[in-house]
Amino acid sequence: MAENEDGSEKTESASSKKLQDARNKGNLPRSKDLSSALLLIVAAATLYGTGTLLVRDLAILFDFNFVIEREDLFDLSRMVFHLYESIVAIMDSMVLLMAVLAAAGIIGSIALGGLNFSWEPLLPKLSKLSPIAGLKRMFSAQSLVELLKSIAKVLLVALVSVIVINYFLAESLGLTFQSIEQAIAHGIDMVIWSFVFVSLALLLIAAIDVPFQIWSHKEKLKMTKQEVKDEYKQQEGDPQVRGRIRQLQRQAAMNRMMADVPDADVIITNPTHFSVALKYDQKGGSAPVMLAKGGDFIALKIREVANHYDIPVVQSPELARAIYHHTEIGDEIPEGLFKVVAQLLAYVYQLRNARYGATAPNGMPDLEVPAEYQWDGQ
Description:
Elements: H1 16-24, H2 32-66, H3 70-73, H4 76-110, H5 131-138, H6 141-173, H7 180-220, H8 225-236, H9 239-260, E1 266-269, E2 274-279, E3 289-295, H10 297-308, E4 313-315, H11 317-326, H12 338-354
Parallel strand pairs: 1-4
Antiparallel strand pairs: 1-2, 2-3
Protein backbone atom coordinates (compact mmCIF):
# COMPACT_ATOMS: atom_id res chain seq x y z
CA MET A 1 0.00 0.00 0.00
CA ALA A 2 1.28 3.48 -0.87
CA GLU A 3 2.68 5.59 1.93
CA ASN A 4 3.25 9.30 2.33
CA GLU A 5 6.62 10.79 3.21
CA ASP A 6 5.54 11.08 6.86
CA GLY A 7 4.65 7.37 6.96
CA SER A 8 0.87 7.76 6.79
CA GLU A 9 -0.88 5.33 4.47
CA LYS A 10 -2.51 6.57 1.30
CA THR A 11 -5.79 4.69 1.41
CA GLU A 12 -8.15 7.14 -0.29
CA SER A 13 -8.71 7.38 -4.04
CA ALA A 14 -7.57 10.61 -5.67
CA SER A 15 -10.16 13.37 -5.73
CA SER A 16 -11.29 15.00 -8.95
CA LYS A 17 -9.24 18.08 -8.03
CA LYS A 18 -6.05 16.09 -7.56
CA LEU A 19 -6.64 14.23 -10.83
CA GLN A 20 -7.10 17.55 -12.63
CA ASP A 21 -4.00 19.02 -10.97
CA ALA A 22 -1.98 15.99 -12.06
CA ARG A 23 -3.29 16.37 -15.59
CA ASN A 24 -2.35 20.05 -15.63
CA LYS A 25 1.19 19.04 -14.65
CA GLY A 26 1.35 16.46 -17.45
CA ASN A 27 1.14 13.55 -15.02
CA LEU A 28 -0.90 11.01 -16.99
CA PRO A 29 -0.75 7.24 -17.49
CA ARG A 30 1.26 6.42 -20.61
CA SER A 31 2.30 3.15 -22.27
CA LYS A 32 5.36 3.15 -24.55
CA ASP A 33 4.67 -0.46 -25.50
CA LEU A 34 1.20 0.41 -26.78
CA SER A 35 2.66 3.24 -28.84
CA SER A 36 5.39 0.99 -30.30
CA ALA A 37 2.93 -1.79 -31.18
CA LEU A 38 0.54 0.66 -32.84
CA LEU A 39 3.43 2.22 -34.77
CA LEU A 40 4.57 -1.13 -36.17
CA ILE A 41 1.02 -2.17 -37.10
CA VAL A 42 0.39 1.10 -38.95
CA ALA A 43 3.79 0.82 -40.64
CA ALA A 44 2.94 -2.68 -41.88
CA ALA A 45 -0.51 -1.56 -43.10
CA THR A 46 0.98 1.49 -44.85
CA LEU A 47 3.67 -0.58 -46.57
CA TYR A 48 1.03 -3.05 -47.67
CA GLY A 49 -1.15 -0.26 -49.09
CA THR A 50 1.66 1.73 -50.74
CA GLY A 51 3.93 -1.19 -51.66
CA THR A 52 3.42 -0.79 -55.40
CA LEU A 53 4.30 2.91 -55.26
CA LEU A 54 7.33 2.23 -53.08
CA VAL A 55 8.59 -0.54 -55.38
CA ARG A 56 8.33 1.76 -58.37
CA ASP A 57 10.17 4.62 -56.67
CA LEU A 58 12.93 2.38 -55.30
CA ALA A 59 13.41 0.74 -58.71
CA ILE A 60 13.83 4.17 -60.30
CA LEU A 61 16.22 5.19 -57.51
CA PHE A 62 18.41 2.08 -57.86
CA ASP A 63 18.42 2.19 -61.64
CA PHE A 64 19.43 5.85 -61.60
CA ASN A 65 22.23 5.49 -59.02
CA PHE A 66 23.64 2.07 -59.83
CA VAL A 67 24.63 3.20 -63.33
CA ILE A 68 26.86 6.28 -63.05
CA GLU A 69 29.12 7.56 -65.81
CA ARG A 70 32.84 7.85 -65.02
CA GLU A 71 32.78 11.57 -65.71
CA ASP A 72 30.06 12.07 -63.11
CA LEU A 73 32.32 10.74 -60.36
CA PHE A 74 34.74 13.63 -60.86
CA ASP A 75 32.07 16.33 -61.29
CA LEU A 76 30.69 17.65 -57.97
CA SER A 77 27.71 19.31 -59.67
CA ARG A 78 26.70 15.98 -61.25
CA MET A 79 26.85 14.21 -57.89
CA VAL A 80 24.64 16.92 -56.36
CA PHE A 81 22.29 16.42 -59.30
CA HIS A 82 22.19 12.67 -58.56
CA LEU A 83 21.38 13.39 -54.93
CA TYR A 84 18.60 15.81 -55.87
CA GLU A 85 17.06 13.39 -58.38
CA SER A 86 17.24 10.56 -55.83
CA ILE A 87 15.35 12.63 -53.26
CA VAL A 88 12.71 13.59 -55.82
CA ALA A 89 12.34 9.96 -56.97
CA ILE A 90 11.63 8.63 -53.48
CA MET A 91 9.77 11.69 -52.19
CA ASP A 92 6.19 10.60 -53.02
CA SER A 93 6.21 7.27 -51.25
CA MET A 94 8.43 8.32 -48.34
CA VAL A 95 6.49 11.48 -47.52
CA LEU A 96 3.27 9.49 -47.37
CA LEU A 97 4.89 6.79 -45.22
CA MET A 98 6.49 9.29 -42.83
CA ALA A 99 3.27 11.31 -42.50
CA VAL A 100 1.25 8.21 -41.61
CA LEU A 101 3.91 7.03 -39.14
CA ALA A 102 4.06 10.49 -37.52
CA ALA A 103 0.27 10.45 -37.07
CA ALA A 104 0.45 6.91 -35.69
CA GLY A 105 3.17 7.96 -33.25
CA ILE A 106 1.06 10.85 -31.96
CA ILE A 107 -2.09 8.73 -31.66
CA GLY A 108 -0.16 5.95 -29.95
CA SER A 109 1.31 8.31 -27.39
CA ILE A 110 -2.09 9.77 -26.44
CA ALA A 111 -4.10 6.54 -26.74
CA LEU A 112 -3.73 6.05 -22.99
CA GLY A 113 -4.36 9.18 -20.95
CA GLY A 114 -5.65 11.36 -23.76
CA LEU A 115 -4.33 14.53 -25.33
CA ASN A 116 -2.73 16.96 -22.91
CA PHE A 117 -0.25 19.83 -23.11
CA SER A 118 1.68 21.16 -20.14
CA TRP A 119 4.86 23.16 -19.63
CA GLU A 120 5.32 21.65 -16.15
CA PRO A 121 7.57 18.71 -17.17
CA LEU A 122 9.89 21.13 -19.02
CA LEU A 123 10.50 23.35 -15.99
CA PRO A 124 13.81 22.76 -14.15
CA LYS A 125 13.48 21.11 -10.75
CA LEU A 126 16.25 21.00 -8.16
CA SER A 127 14.86 17.74 -6.78
CA LYS A 128 15.90 16.01 -10.01
CA LEU A 129 19.51 16.95 -9.26
CA SER A 130 19.45 15.42 -5.79
CA PRO A 131 21.62 12.24 -5.61
CA ILE A 132 19.53 10.88 -2.74
CA ALA A 133 16.29 11.31 -4.67
CA GLY A 134 17.94 9.71 -7.70
CA LEU A 135 19.03 6.69 -5.68
CA LYS A 136 15.54 6.33 -4.26
CA ARG A 137 14.10 6.28 -7.77
CA MET A 138 16.73 3.78 -8.94
CA PHE A 139 16.02 1.28 -6.15
CA SER A 140 12.28 1.80 -5.85
CA ALA A 141 9.66 -0.88 -6.50
CA GLN A 142 8.59 1.04 -9.60
CA SER A 143 12.11 0.87 -11.03
CA LEU A 144 12.31 -2.85 -10.30
CA VAL A 145 9.04 -3.48 -12.12
CA GLU A 146 10.21 -1.39 -15.08
CA LEU A 147 13.49 -3.33 -15.19
CA LEU A 148 11.75 -6.70 -15.17
CA LYS A 149 9.30 -5.50 -17.79
CA SER A 150 12.13 -4.26 -20.03
CA ILE A 151 14.00 -7.58 -19.73
CA ALA A 152 10.84 -9.53 -20.55
CA LYS A 153 10.12 -7.25 -23.49
CA VAL A 154 13.64 -7.60 -24.92
CA LEU A 155 13.58 -11.39 -24.53
CA LEU A 156 10.15 -11.71 -26.14
CA VAL A 157 10.94 -9.40 -29.07
CA ALA A 158 14.34 -11.08 -29.54
CA LEU A 159 12.69 -14.51 -29.60
CA VAL A 160 10.11 -13.41 -32.16
CA SER A 161 12.83 -11.72 -34.25
CA VAL A 162 14.94 -14.89 -34.29
CA ILE A 163 11.93 -16.93 -35.39
CA VAL A 164 11.10 -14.41 -38.14
CA ILE A 165 14.73 -14.29 -39.38
CA ASN A 166 14.96 -18.08 -39.51
CA TYR A 167 11.63 -18.24 -41.32
CA PHE A 168 12.65 -15.73 -44.01
CA LEU A 169 16.34 -16.69 -44.18
CA ALA A 170 16.08 -18.81 -47.31
CA GLU A 171 13.91 -16.21 -49.06
CA SER A 172 16.35 -13.42 -48.09
CA LEU A 173 19.28 -15.28 -49.66
CA GLY A 174 17.24 -15.81 -52.81
CA LEU A 175 16.69 -12.07 -53.36
CA THR A 176 20.07 -11.81 -55.10
CA PHE A 177 18.81 -14.00 -57.93
CA GLN A 178 15.75 -11.85 -58.64
CA SER A 179 15.33 -8.68 -60.65
CA ILE A 180 15.42 -5.35 -58.86
CA GLU A 181 11.64 -4.92 -58.98
CA GLN A 182 11.00 -8.48 -57.77
CA ALA A 183 13.64 -8.25 -55.05
CA ILE A 184 12.26 -4.97 -53.74
CA ALA A 185 8.66 -6.20 -53.77
CA HIS A 186 9.65 -9.46 -52.10
CA GLY A 187 11.79 -7.62 -49.53
CA ILE A 188 8.95 -5.24 -48.66
CA ASP A 189 6.63 -8.22 -48.23
CA MET A 190 9.05 -9.81 -45.76
CA VAL A 191 9.38 -6.50 -43.89
CA ILE A 192 5.61 -6.22 -43.62
CA TRP A 193 5.26 -9.70 -42.12
CA SER A 194 8.20 -9.05 -39.81
CA PHE A 195 6.48 -5.91 -38.54
CA VAL A 196 3.26 -7.87 -38.02
CA PHE A 197 4.93 -10.63 -35.96
CA VAL A 198 6.95 -8.20 -33.84
CA SER A 199 3.92 -5.95 -33.28
CA LEU A 200 1.91 -8.96 -32.08
CA ALA A 201 4.60 -9.58 -29.49
CA LEU A 202 4.46 -5.94 -28.45
CA LEU A 203 0.65 -6.08 -28.27
CA LEU A 204 0.97 -8.93 -25.80
CA ILE A 205 3.29 -6.80 -23.69
CA ALA A 206 0.98 -3.76 -24.07
CA ALA A 207 -2.01 -5.83 -22.89
CA ILE A 208 -0.14 -6.28 -19.62
CA ASP A 209 1.46 -2.84 -19.50
CA VAL A 210 -1.68 -0.74 -20.05
CA PRO A 211 -3.61 -2.04 -16.99
CA PHE A 212 -0.41 -1.81 -14.95
CA GLN A 213 0.18 1.82 -15.94
CA ILE A 214 -3.43 2.74 -15.07
CA TRP A 215 -3.15 0.99 -11.70
CA SER A 216 0.26 2.52 -11.00
CA HIS A 217 -1.01 6.01 -11.85
CA LYS A 218 -3.95 5.66 -9.47
CA GLU A 219 -1.69 4.33 -6.72
CA LYS A 220 0.69 7.29 -7.06
CA LEU A 221 -2.17 9.77 -6.76
CA LYS A 222 -3.83 8.14 -3.74
CA MET A 223 -4.33 10.42 -0.75
CA THR A 224 -4.21 10.06 3.00
CA LYS A 225 -7.30 10.78 5.06
CA GLN A 226 -5.68 13.99 6.28
CA GLU A 227 -4.98 15.13 2.71
CA VAL A 228 -8.64 14.58 1.86
CA LYS A 229 -9.71 16.68 4.84
CA ASP A 230 -7.23 19.44 4.01
CA GLU A 231 -8.35 19.56 0.38
CA TYR A 232 -11.99 19.73 1.44
CA LYS A 233 -11.20 22.66 3.73
CA GLN A 234 -9.36 24.45 0.93
CA GLN A 235 -12.24 24.00 -1.49
CA GLU A 236 -15.17 24.51 0.83
CA GLY A 237 -13.55 26.61 3.51
CA ASP A 238 -13.30 25.93 7.24
CA PRO A 239 -16.62 24.54 8.61
CA GLN A 240 -16.62 27.06 11.45
CA VAL A 241 -16.08 29.94 9.05
CA ARG A 242 -18.82 28.68 6.72
CA GLY A 243 -21.17 28.25 9.68
CA ARG A 244 -20.46 31.79 10.80
CA ILE A 245 -21.10 33.10 7.27
CA ARG A 246 -24.44 31.29 7.10
CA GLN A 247 -25.35 32.68 10.51
CA LEU A 248 -24.56 36.22 9.37
CA GLN A 249 -26.55 35.69 6.18
CA ARG A 250 -29.56 34.47 8.15
CA GLN A 251 -29.19 37.42 10.51
CA ALA A 252 -29.07 39.87 7.59
CA ALA A 253 -32.11 38.26 5.97
CA MET A 254 -34.03 38.43 9.25
CA ASN A 255 -33.07 42.08 9.73
CA ARG A 256 -34.35 42.92 6.23
CA MET A 257 -37.53 41.01 6.95
CA MET A 258 -38.07 42.69 10.32
CA ALA A 259 -37.55 46.09 8.67
CA ASP A 260 -40.61 45.42 6.48
CA VAL A 261 -42.89 44.48 9.40
CA PRO A 262 -43.86 48.13 10.19
CA ASP A 263 -45.43 48.34 6.71
CA ALA A 264 -47.78 45.39 7.38
CA ASP A 265 -51.55 45.80 7.64
CA VAL A 266 -52.07 42.86 9.97
CA ILE A 267 -50.13 40.22 11.89
CA ILE A 268 -51.73 36.78 12.06
CA THR A 269 -50.54 34.51 14.87
CA ASN A 270 -50.84 30.89 15.95
CA PRO A 271 -50.83 32.53 18.65
CA THR A 272 -47.35 31.56 19.93
CA HIS A 273 -45.61 29.31 17.41
CA PHE A 274 -46.17 31.19 14.12
CA SER A 275 -46.56 34.80 13.06
CA VAL A 276 -47.09 36.11 9.52
CA ALA A 277 -47.21 39.76 8.43
CA LEU A 278 -49.47 40.69 5.50
CA LYS A 279 -49.83 43.88 3.50
CA TYR A 280 -52.48 44.66 0.90
CA ASP A 281 -52.07 47.50 -1.58
CA GLN A 282 -55.66 48.56 -2.24
CA LYS A 283 -54.65 50.66 -5.24
CA GLY A 284 -52.33 48.43 -7.26
CA GLY A 285 -52.09 45.06 -5.56
CA SER A 286 -53.96 42.05 -6.87
CA ALA A 287 -53.56 40.05 -3.66
CA PRO A 288 -52.10 40.47 -0.18
CA VAL A 289 -48.33 39.98 0.05
CA MET A 290 -46.45 38.30 2.89
CA LEU A 291 -43.84 40.70 4.28
CA ALA A 292 -42.48 38.47 7.04
CA LYS A 293 -42.99 35.16 8.74
CA GLY A 294 -41.33 33.25 11.54
CA GLY A 295 -41.69 30.65 14.22
CA ASP A 296 -41.10 30.70 17.96
CA PHE A 297 -38.53 33.43 18.77
CA ILE A 298 -38.86 35.17 15.41
CA ALA A 299 -42.65 34.99 15.72
CA LEU A 300 -42.34 36.73 19.10
CA LYS A 301 -40.09 39.44 17.61
CA ILE A 302 -42.63 40.06 14.83
CA ARG A 303 -45.37 40.55 17.42
CA GLU A 304 -43.14 42.90 19.44
CA VAL A 305 -42.49 45.07 16.37
CA ALA A 306 -46.20 45.00 15.56
CA ASN A 307 -47.10 46.15 19.08
CA HIS A 308 -44.49 48.90 18.90
CA TYR A 309 -45.95 50.28 15.64
CA ASP A 310 -49.55 49.62 16.70
CA ILE A 311 -50.22 47.07 13.97
CA PRO A 312 -53.28 44.83 14.56
CA VAL A 313 -52.37 41.33 15.78
CA VAL A 314 -55.06 38.75 15.10
CA GLN A 315 -55.09 35.21 16.46
CA SER A 316 -56.15 32.67 13.84
CA PRO A 317 -54.17 29.42 14.25
CA GLU A 318 -55.45 27.65 11.12
CA LEU A 319 -55.00 30.68 8.87
CA ALA A 320 -51.56 31.50 10.32
CA ARG A 321 -50.35 27.92 9.70
CA ALA A 322 -51.83 27.85 6.19
CA ILE A 323 -50.17 31.10 5.13
CA TYR A 324 -46.88 30.19 6.83
CA HIS A 325 -46.53 26.84 5.04
CA HIS A 326 -47.90 27.84 1.62
CA THR A 327 -46.37 31.29 1.07
CA GLU A 328 -42.81 32.57 0.81
CA ILE A 329 -41.64 36.00 1.93
CA GLY A 330 -42.35 38.59 -0.78
CA ASP A 331 -44.94 36.41 -2.54
CA GLU A 332 -48.67 36.86 -2.81
CA ILE A 333 -50.83 34.49 -0.82
CA PRO A 334 -52.31 31.50 -2.73
CA GLU A 335 -55.51 32.09 -4.64
CA GLY A 336 -57.35 29.59 -2.46
CA LEU A 337 -56.81 31.83 0.58
CA PHE A 338 -58.03 35.06 -1.05
CA LYS A 339 -61.54 34.85 0.40
CA VAL A 340 -60.62 34.09 3.99
CA VAL A 341 -57.84 36.72 4.05
CA ALA A 342 -60.21 39.27 2.53
CA GLN A 343 -62.66 38.62 5.38
CA LEU A 344 -59.86 39.11 7.90
CA LEU A 345 -58.62 42.34 6.28
CA ALA A 346 -62.18 43.71 6.18
CA TYR A 347 -62.43 43.06 9.91
CA VAL A 348 -59.06 44.77 10.52
CA TYR A 349 -60.07 47.82 8.47
CA GLN A 350 -63.33 48.07 10.46
CA LEU A 351 -61.33 48.02 13.69
CA ARG A 352 -59.07 50.76 12.36
CA ASN A 353 -61.98 52.93 11.25
CA ALA A 354 -63.72 52.45 14.63
CA ARG A 355 -60.89 54.45 16.19
CA TYR A 356 -62.09 57.45 14.21
CA GLY A 357 -65.77 57.16 15.13
CA ALA A 358 -67.03 54.51 12.73
CA THR A 359 -69.16 51.61 13.88
CA ALA A 360 -67.10 48.85 15.49
CA PRO A 361 -67.50 45.31 14.14
CA ASN A 362 -69.61 42.89 16.18
CA GLY A 363 -66.74 40.39 16.33
CA MET A 364 -64.13 38.60 14.24
CA PRO A 365 -65.75 36.65 11.43
CA ASP A 366 -65.58 32.85 11.29
CA LEU A 367 -62.48 32.25 9.15
CA GLU A 368 -62.86 28.94 7.32
CA VAL A 369 -59.57 27.81 5.78
CA PRO A 370 -60.00 25.48 2.74
CA ALA A 371 -59.19 21.87 3.55
CA GLU A 372 -56.31 21.67 1.04
CA TYR A 373 -54.51 24.53 2.87
CA GLN A 374 -55.03 23.28 6.40
CA TRP A 375 -51.87 22.17 8.16
CA ASP A 376 -52.05 19.27 10.58
CA GLY A 377 -48.86 20.22 12.39
CA GLN A 378 -48.43 22.63 15.27
